[in-house]
C-alpha cells in the first residue's frame, strides 16, 4: 500500500517512534504534553511572538504511522544570520525510503511557500534545544536533552538529498573524587576564594530570579556562537521553566561578580529513566515512576554552561565546573553527560579533555539547498 500523509495529526505523530523503534532501543520520547505545547503555535513563543510558521506531518502505511517530521521557520535566526532557512525536526521513521521522501517532499514544499532557499535540521525546535541527527554512538544511552535515532536515519536523509554538515558530539564523564580537582588552577582558585565572587543557589524559592540571571548569562556568553539567537524571557521560560519541579539545587550553579550575574551552569538529574518508564504519557503510575527514578538517580546532565564575554579567559567556567562536580559527587551522582558541543568550540572541547570525558554520540546537521 502506498504512503499517505496526514498534517497536524498529533496522535499519530506521537505514536511513530513506538511503532518503528524496538522497545529496548535507547530512544526516549518527550512527554506528550510537552510535545503538544511545542507544536501549538498559540502556545510556543517562537511562533506566537516571533512570527514563525510551523506544521508537522505523519506518514502512514497500511493505516500504521511509520514516519514523522516537523518543519518550521525561525525569522529571528534568519534575520540574525542572513539566511533564508527552513528548519526541520522530530524526524523519526521506519527504514522506508518512500515514507522519508514523502515527508521531505512536503517539508520542501512548505519551505518554498515560506520563501526559504534551504532546509536544515534536526532542530527540536531551535539550536538551544535538541539539535542534530545521530551519526555515531547508536548503542549509547542518551541523557536528558540528547537526541537518539537509529543508524539508518542518516542514509534516509541522504536518499532525500540532504547532506551532513556542522559536526557535534555529546560527552560523558565519571564523577569521581578527583574529577573536580583536575580543573583547578590559580585563576579558578582565586574565584573560588572570593574577592568579588559570590555564589547563588538555584532553588524553587529563587527560581524565577535566578533563571532570569541565567538567561542573561546565556545570551551574553553565546552571542557569537553559530546559529545562536538570544532568547526572550518568554522563550526561555517556555523551554526551561518546568525545571523548577525537578532541579536539584545542589548541582546547579550561578556565580556573580561584584553583584552582577557572571556565569551559570544548568545541571539537572537525568530524567530519561523516568520518561522511558512512562512512555511519554502521564498516567496512574507516573508518580511511582518519578519517585523510583529520584531514589535511584546516579546520572546528571549539564544542559548548558555560559560565562559573560567580558569575563572569558578568567577561569570562571573551570571554577563553576569544580563546584558542580564536587556537589555531584557529594550528592551520590556518579556519571554526568554534556549536551552537544560543536567541533568549532575548542574551549569546551579542552574542558572535556581535562575532565577525561569520553565522546558519547556523534551528530551532524543535515542540509539541502532548494532550487
TrEMBL record:
Alphabetical list of InterPro entries matching this protein = Acyl_CoA_acyltransferase, BcerS-like, GNAT_dom
A Pfam family annotated for this UniProt entry: Acetyltransf_1
Q: Where does the N-acetyltransferase domain lie?
A: 209-371
Put simply, this protein is called GNAT family N-acetyltransferase
Amino acid at each position: 500500500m502506498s504512503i499517505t500523509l496526514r498534517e497536524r495529526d498529533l496522535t499519530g505523530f506521537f505514536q511513530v517512534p513506538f511503532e518503528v523503534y524496538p522497545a529496548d532501543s535507547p530512544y526516549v520520547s518527550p512527554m506528550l504534553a510537552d510535545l503538544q505545547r511545542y507544536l501549538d503555535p498559540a502556545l510556543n513563543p517562537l511562533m506566537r511572538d516571533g512570527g514563525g510558521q510551523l506544521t508537522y506531518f505523519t506518514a502512514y502505511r497500511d493505516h500504521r504511522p511509520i514516519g514523522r517530521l516537523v518543519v518550521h521557520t525561525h525569522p529571528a535566526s534568519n534575520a540574525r544570520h542572513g539566511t533564508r532557512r527552513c528548519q526541520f525536526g522530530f524526524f523519526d521513521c521506519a527504514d522506508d525510503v518512500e515514507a522519508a521522501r514523502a515527508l521531505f517532499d512536503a517539508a520542501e514544499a512548505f519551505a518554498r511557500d515560506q520563501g526559504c532557499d534551504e532546509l536544515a535540521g534536526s532542530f527540536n525546535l531551535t539550536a538551544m534545544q535538541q539539535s542534530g541527527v545521530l551519526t555515531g554512538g547508536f548503542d549509547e544511552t542518551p541523557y536528558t536533552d540528547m537526541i537518539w535515532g537509529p543508524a539508518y536515519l542518516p542514509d534516509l536523509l541522504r536518499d532525500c538529498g540532504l547532506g551532513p554538515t556542522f559536526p557535534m558530539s555529546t560527552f560523558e564523564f565519571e564523577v569521581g573524587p578527583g574529577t573536580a580537582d583536575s580543573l583547578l588552577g590559580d585563576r579558578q582558585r582565586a574565584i573560588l576564594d572570593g574577592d568579588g565572587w559570590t555564589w547563588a543557589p538555584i532553588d524553587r524559592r529563587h527560581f524565577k530570579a535566578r533563571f532570569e540571571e541565567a538567561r542573561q548569562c546565556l545570551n551574553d556568553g553565546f552571542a557569537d556562537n553559530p546559529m545562536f539567537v538570544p532568547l526572550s524571557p518568554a522563550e526561555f521560560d517556555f523551554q526551561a521553566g518546568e525545571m523548577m519541579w525537578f532541579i536539584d539545587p545542589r548541582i546547579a550553579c550561578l556565580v556573580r561578580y561584584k553583584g552582577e550575574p557572571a556565569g551559570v551552569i544548568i545541571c539537572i538529574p537525568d530524567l530519561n529513566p523516568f520518561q522511558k518508564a512512562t512512555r511519554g504519557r502521564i498516567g496512574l503510575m507516573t508518580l511511582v515512576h518519578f519517585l523510583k527514578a529520584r531514589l535511584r538517580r546516579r546520572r546528571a546532565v549539564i544542559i548548558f554552561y555560559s560565562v559573560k564575554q567580558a569575563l572569558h579567559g578568567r577561569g570562571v567556567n573551570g571554577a563553576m565546573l569544580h563546584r558542580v562536580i564536587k556537589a555531584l559527587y557529594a550528592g551520590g551522582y556518579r556519571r554526568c553527560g554534556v549536551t552537544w558541543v560543536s567541533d568549532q568550540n575548542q574551549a569546551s572541547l579542552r574542558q572535556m579533555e581535562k575532565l577525561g570525558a569520553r565522546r558519547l554520540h556523534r551528530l551532524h546537521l543535515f542540509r539541502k539547498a532548494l532550487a
